[in-house]
Each structure stands twice: as C-alpha cells, then as structure tokens.
Amino acid sequence: MQQISDYLFMGSLFLLIITLLFKGVGSRGASNPSGNIDLQMQQNHRNDLKKQDTIIKSILKSYFVWISTVGILISIFLSKI
C-alpha cells in the first residue's frame, strides 16, 4: 500500500508541476509578457494586475490541477493507513 501511495503522490506532483508550467508560464509568457519596463509598469499597474488575475483564474479552472491535488490528498490518506 505504501508503494501505491508513493507512485500516486509522485504522479500527481508531476502532473501538477506540468500543468502549472503550461497554464501559468506557458500560456502567458514570462512574468512581464507585455514588455513593460519599470516606468511603464507604474502607469499600467491595473492592467498588469488584471493579467495576473486571469492567470490565476485559468489555473484554478483547470481540471488537471484539481485532479493532481486530489491525487496528492489520496496518497497522503493512503500513507496514513
């Protein structure tokens, strides 16, 4: 049972990392996708915050994030048995 729990945890963690990479960085580019320099970021601060909110919302809407989170929780529960 411990080995199943370990494999489930590692698989779920791998899925979570891959999903976060594709949904977070992969879909929006680098942390500064619009190419704003520091002076422009002060002027476009509201737009930058809105883009960050949409990234977080897209990550939380992803089924793979929730599947991997449930897999991690199940593996923790199985390791306690």
Tell me the layout of helices and strands.
Elements: H1 2-28, H2 38-43, H3 45-61, H4 63-80
Helix pairs in contact: 1-3, 1-4
Any overview of this molecule?
The structure is a single chain. With 81 residues, the chain is mostly helical. It contains 4 helices and no strands. The longest helix is centred in the first third of the chain and has 27 residues.
C-alpha Rg (nearest Å): 17 Å
Secondary structure: number of strands: 0
Biggest sheet overview: none
In whole angstroms, how far apart are the ends? 8 Å
SSE sequence, one letter per element = HHHH
Residues in β-strands, percent? under 5%
Tell me, rounded to a whole number, the average pLDDT.
78
Q: How many helical elements?
A: 4
Q: Which word captures the global form?
A: elongated
How much helical structure, as a percent, in the residues?
over 70%
Which ranges are low-confidence, i.e. pLDDT below 50, for 5 or more consecutive residues?
none
Question: Brief overview, please?
Answer:
This protein is mostly helical. Helices cover 84% and strands 0% of the residues.
